[in-house]
Amino acid sequence: MQDLEKIDTRFFSAEREAHLDVVGETVPRVDARSHVTGKTQFYEDMTLPGMLHLKMARSTRHHALIRKIDLKAAEKVPGFVRALTHKDVPNNWYTILRLIGVEPNDEPVLPEDRVLFAGEQIVAILADTAAAAGEAASKVKIEYKDLPAVFDVEEALKPGAPIIKPHGKNYFVYEGHHCRRIRFGDVEKGFASADHVIEHRYQSAPIEHAPTETTGCIVKPEGNGRFTIHSNTQACYFTLDNAALILGLPFNKLRVVGGTVGGGFGGKVDVIVEPIAILAAMLTGRPVKYAYSREEEMQVSSPRAAERITIKDGVMKDGRIVARKVTLYVDAGAYSRHSPYGTTKAAAHMPGPYSIPNVWVDAHCVYTNRTPSSAMRGFGVTIGDFALESQMDRIARFLKMDPVEFRMLNAYRDGDTKAHRKKAEGCALVEVMQKAAEMTGRTLPERFRKMSSLSREGI
Amino acid sequence: MSSSVVTLNVNGESREFLCRPGTTLLDALRDSLSLTAAKKGCAQGSCGTCTVLVEGRAVFACLVPVETIGSRPVETLEGLAAGEALHPLQAAFIEGFATQCGFCTSGMILAAKALLRASPDPTRADVVRAISGNVCRCTGYEAIVDAILMAAARLRKTATRKRAAE
Amino acid sequence: MAKLKGRGVSAVNYPTGMNLGGDPSQALIHATTTGSFVITLSSVDLGQGLKTVIAQIGAETLGVPFDTVWVDTADTDTGPHCMGTFASRGTHRIGNAVIMAAREARSVMLEVAAEELEVDPDDLVTDGKGAIHVKGSPEKSVAVINVALAAHFKYGKTISGRGIFMKPKSEPVPETGEMDPDSCQAHACTVAEVEVDDETGDVRVLKLTNAYEIGRAMNPALAHQQIVGGAWMGMSHALYETTEPYYPDRAHGPTNFISYLMPGPADIAEMESAIIERPAKNGPYGAKGIGEMTANSPIAAIANAIFDACGVRVETMPITPEKVLRGLDALRAGK
User: Fold this and answer.
1) What local confidence, expressed as pLDDT, does residue A137 receive?
2) Tell me, what DSSP letter sits at residue A268?
């Protein structure tokens, strides 16, 4: 059996002293037994009599006007019950984060006159079986008029780029600005005073949560005007509140039940499947299941945003970073979802856990004609860390300094002011590096062994 | 085409149900027999969450038409424990913290069971090969491999004691 | 043709809580008349073990055995509001709400026990094993189950509690980005050892060594699950995964696990991990949260190790064999 973590109590020993009985103990998981006996109930482990299956007819175009929707062939499929379009949706426009005041409502539940990404849901087909729903959805004939599409974040921001959003801009507006800004000190002065200026660009591509369980829900009309939504959402109230607003229902008519998720990782916080499934249940009086197929989970459900990050650093011979300028683009895809928030988080994370006196960040949330991106484990930070820590390695090698020692020199300490002007506290970057050095058999020079997050000694 | 009455031997019991032509073993288990431990992660044989045993061999139930089973015994996770007593694989997964969200767990345990029946003393590489068709997104696999090896060791010990007692 | 070995390091921090705050969570606790406790939440356990950790926090605060505490989750009819499980906010926000609720329940429990034992509530301690006794006089004790029965049937009191935790929402200053984005920061350092095949561009991650600082490990085994599972996901991000292999071109998007590449059990690295703790002043028993961050430091550590091994710096994720080979070709051509 593997060795489970031992807590190394030599670090911060005075601060971590506590008499605890249960917290800190390796108790068995309360759900392990039901997992290994197959008794854990996932939302799809139930069948309700008379349940309808919902499958979507999806856009095959990246960016197009919808000229015509022909349902005749779809309606003839045995088992077809009903089709839903935007006309059926009481409040068709929303954005998930409006609950915390983010505007505008830039996403339709079902598109009205155009599609913004290949795979976008257009018509909801309800049928007695999943096979019939899928067949009918494939027989929906849609006529498109293609519009110019943008796929690259910097192309999307160039003057003359096709504007793909109704509010007139291919970016999210942060209080009148075209990006989230951090302005701390004076980076140009910093660069001017630096011994070296090192600039590099980093890029990632969209990444899927790829949970083993796809996103889905089953909605059950309770017969008393209320609807129970069995969902694998990560956020029951996010789902409930957004659905109620979209459907124009009193909030207490909806009940969201869940709590077992076959992998979340941020991929089940988008509230995509529930509102339309509830609407279908409202209109038919029958239970409705809307579950993503694996293909839909891979290409239609939102991924982690691709990011493009340029880091320009002003560096002194002795290893101090005196200025850091970061230009960051988050590829939000066709709709905002959580990206405006994630972009702010990305900006807040800069310049990384290092104390740098001059920091400049422009973090853009950019719209393109691709699958909308959204939250994923490490939201706003994971790709930033790839860029930051690759950059730190490159600077260290350029200066012919040890990569760990270089980081320890620049690591933030308690009381340092961060670029977003919050005072750092509870720092431990120095200590995790000391621990990792020890674990890999590396003896750091004494000056670095003595360093601590509690003081600037040794810098 | 109309449904027919099908009888399958599942977990040692004769189970009869109405079945449409072309129904997969997975759908039959989950929708007709209320045996929902086997999961539908992809419906195309790429994730392993639907793994069950047919004649002791691991198969992707989402790819197996019911018509091809005949009288061959089918085993699902629900049949593994004897009442309240857990199978060593189940106990090892609990003790070894080899499960997080639980969605891949049924497939993993059954793939392991098929392996241990054929190879009671597997190498680490044997275990890895046996579960290479089962995707886990949570654990990083290490704990699962360790748990299977631990269960194998315990099963061998029990078998040795049994033989010694006879 | 050679297998080139290299080592790389990466050090990161990670913020706890929904960015900028304004993400409250509530919790309710009640004792049954037979001395067990139910914590009611609308929060969701994603498999990271929230239900287990919350039961531990509840049991610790109440002073009762872990297996007498049950956590009921994810029903909006019974569970009070929770923003949800994301942003590494679960343990921190919900844990703090549960502590508040448990303190209230505990104070009623001690009041009733004090009546039964005819002492002052301040004279009492819980033994964590199901009994409450007078400090220094363990023989003067009463079982929690009897306190629960007495509370309900004799004194007409509810052993229950309510809790909420909220970090007030911070509004960023548009011009400067001044803001208060998080409640605390956890830390990690990863050292990666890789082997690069200079003929195929294949990268094999041999070992990942991870040091984490997470405030307080609520349950070391569950923290270990996050570290190991996250390191695997980080390796997967670094070397394998994307839905758009030709980004920003949308062609050839994978649609299942055969075409969406992730390392399988034969591809995993040897892993060695350790935890240190610097309790957060505002965390439940100092916990900072760990769920989201564990894929992060392995990624750059692997990228840096690849450079160390073969001199190729790949600036785009995922670092595929093709990119490594192109880099090697460029180096050989003397660029």
Assistant:
1) 98
2) T
- pLDDT at residue B27 greater than cutoff 80: yes
Residues above pLDDT 70, as percent of chain A: 99
Residue A5 confidence (pLDDT): 59
Residues within 8 A of A (CB atoms), C 266-325 only:
272-281, 285-286, 288, 291-293, 295-297, 299-301, 303-304, 307, 313, 315-318
Please give the residue of chain A at the shortest CA–CA distance from B80.
A37
> In chain A, which residues have their Cβ closer than 8 Å to the Cβ of B137?
209-212, 263, 265
- Separation of alpha carbons C21 and C170, rounded Å: 6
Q: In 3D, which of A168, A129, A123 has the Cα closest to residue B20?
A: A129
pTM over 0.90: yes
Number of H helices and number of E strands within chain B? 5, 5
Identity of the amino acid at C114? A
Asked if C225 and B101 come within 8 Å (Cβ–Cβ), the reply is no
Segments of chain A scoring below 50 in pLDDT: 1-2
Length reported for chain A:
459
Best residue of A2, A36, A214, A304 to probe chain B, by most B CBs closer than 10 Å: A36
The 3-state DSSP composition of chain C as helix, strand, coil percent (nearest 5) reads: 35, 25, 40
Burial A71-98 (b: 16+ CB within 10 A, else e): beebeebebbbbbbbbebbeebbbbbbb
C-alpha B124/C-alpha B116 separation (Å) is: 12
User: Is the C-alpha dihedral spanning B127, B130, B133, B138 positive or negative?
Assistant: negative
**pLDDT tens string A163-221:** 999 999 999 999 999 999 999 999 999 999 999 999 999 999 999 999 999 999 999 99
* Coil, strand or helix at C272: strand
Q: Is the ipTM of this complex over 0.85?
A: yes
Amino acid identity of residue A36, one-letter, is V
